[in-house]
Specification:
By secondary structure, the chain is mainly α. About 75% of the residues lie in helices and about 5% in strands. It has a single domain, classed as Growth Hormone, Chain: A, CATH 1.20.1250.20. The protein contains 22 helices and five strands. Strand 1 and strand 2 form a beta hairpin.
């Protein structure tokens, strides 16, 4: 049986040899309940993250700001602090109670989302968006670390895939909100709130999407901090930074393949999510709200299906002894989803473009198993930090440059707003094949590092 020892000040119990088949894993029903609660939190985070992009017109009018200033609220104010503060927050997650850290993060980003509704100036709205980013930075690194301690390796990919459904589900819900709820609320210029009085209707939307955060916090309190599994056997873990840096250096090839491959996929996915509604409007004359609704449905349903398919396939291959199964599934997602995504941008009708997107998204979202691969080759004491570094690189590349790259190509290479479809096709046609090549180059290094990590931890 695995020996257990309590780490002083961490509020967590350590199980050094997670590889022991007799390890006392939580009951499956409880573990899947935890996945469900974390999924709700992740979904809410994406709704809160994206809701501002649906309110550009009323915010511009109320605060008298430019498109550039709005873009900074949507992107930089959130993404910079989300990515940068993810690293120190993950350092805390590797040492402290992860459940409590997530509760604190949900409470913070919900409060900051509500604060966006009360912002009276551009500066205060910018600060509130920064707060949303800081709060959300606490979720995924800690959640991935927790799930790694709640599921055996041959079931972990499915669990993380279900958690990751929060990305397409949250993005899809936000798009659908933009087509229905937002329009309905904005039909009334002012809304009377108890104890506050009359306020602009757009401000109440931030309050509505922030409110579920309280329920999520209560649900999270029903989850216990899991036992920490998979610590290195060489002795008590070191808090010194060089140990972490040495780990990164030793696994630089495998981690480099994962980081670069996922960043290129993210470059395409974030760019597509940002520009597809506008693409339908410019290319086919469709209303942005209608395009956003149908694209939201595709993301929510197709994205969820793809994540579950990818996780199930990766688990089955891994159980059969395919050590690099997760990287292989990521490559497969590109090979199956890339061509229809590229074709979607070039279709002669909107209907055919939506059909191609509906085929592409379930395939492409199978790449989400990349975060599982990280957990497999990383000792417990570094998991949250490696995950945060992963999100830092992937989000900074994808969220920071994906939408911008497509816009730059449209403005400066093609110099024609109607050529947005060719910008989407060009980025897709270059970035996804390159990602597949890089992932393939990392197969052997990943399998080697997986064996070394398994030997060192159990």
């Amino acid at each position: 049986m695995a020996t257990q020892s309590a780490e002083a000040g961490s509020h967590a119990t350590i199980v050094p040899d997670a590889g022991d088949p007799s390890a006392d894993w939580p009951r499956p029903a409880y573990s899947w309940y935890a996945v469900g609660v974390l999924l709700l939190a992740y979904t809410l985070s994406f709704v809160d993250r994206m809701i501002l992009s649906l309110l550009v017109a009323p915010i511009r009018a109320a605060l008298d700001i430019s498109d550039t200033e709005v873009s900074l609220l949507i992107g930089l104010a959130f993404a910079l602090f989300y990515t940068l503060l993810g690293l120190p927050i993950a350092w805390i997650a590797d040492r402290w109670n992860r459940r409590n850290l997530i509760v604190s993060g949900v409470a913070l980003w919900s409060a900051m989302t509500a604060a966006c509704g009360f912002a009276g100036s551009y500066a205060t709205l910018f600060l509130a968006r920064m707060g949303v980013g800081v709060g959300e930075a606490a979720l995924s690194p800690a959640a991935y670390s927790m799930l790694s301690d709640m599921f055996p390796r041959d079931k972990l990919a499915r669990a993380m895939a279900v958690y990751s459904i929060g990305v397409p589900l949250g993005a899809g819900v936000a798009m659908i909100l933009g087509s229905f709820v937002v329009q309905t609320v904005l039909a009334a210029p002012m809304v009377d709130l108890p104890l506050i009085g009359a306020v602009d209707a757009w401000r109440t939307i931030f309050l509505w999407v922030a409110a579920p955060g309280l329920l999520i916090c209560l649900l999270l309190l029903t989850i216990r901090e899991p036992l920490r599994r998979g610590l290195a056997k060489a002795g008590p873990r070191s808090d010194a930074a060089p140990g972490f840096l040495v780990h990164l250096k030793r696994q630089r090839v495998a981690l480099g393949a994962l980081f670069a491959g996922m960043s290129l996929i993210g470059l395409v996915m974030y760019g597509v999510i940002a520009w597809v509604p506008t693409f339908f409007a410019r290319t086919y004359g469709m209303a942005v709200s209608e395009a956003g609704f149908w694209f939201g449905v595709i993301m929510a349903t197709g994205g969820a299906a793809g994540l579950v398919m990818g996780g199930t396939l990766a688990d089955r291959l891994f159980a059969r002894g395919v050590a690099d199964s997760h990287l292989r599934v990521m490559r497969l997602s590109i090979l199956l989803g890339g061509p229809p995504l590229l074709a979607a941008a070039l279709m002669p009708t909107a209907t055919l473009a939506f059909v191609m997107l509906a085929i592409a998204f379930p395939m492409l979202t199978m790449h989400g198993v990349g975060t599982v691969a990280l957990q497999f080759i990383t000792p417990n004491e570094y998991r949250a930090r490696v995950t945060a570094l992963y999100f830092f690189v992937v989000n900074l590349t994808g969220l920071g440059f994906g939408p911008m790259l497509m816009a730059l190509l449209t403005d400066h290479l093609f110099a024609d707003d109607g050529a947005l479809r060719y910008s989407i096709a060009l980025v897709t046609g270059v970035a996804l094949p390159l990602a597949a090549i890089i992932l393939t180059a990392g197969f052997s290094a990943f399998a080697r590092d997986l064996a070394k990590t398994a030997k060192a931890t159990g």
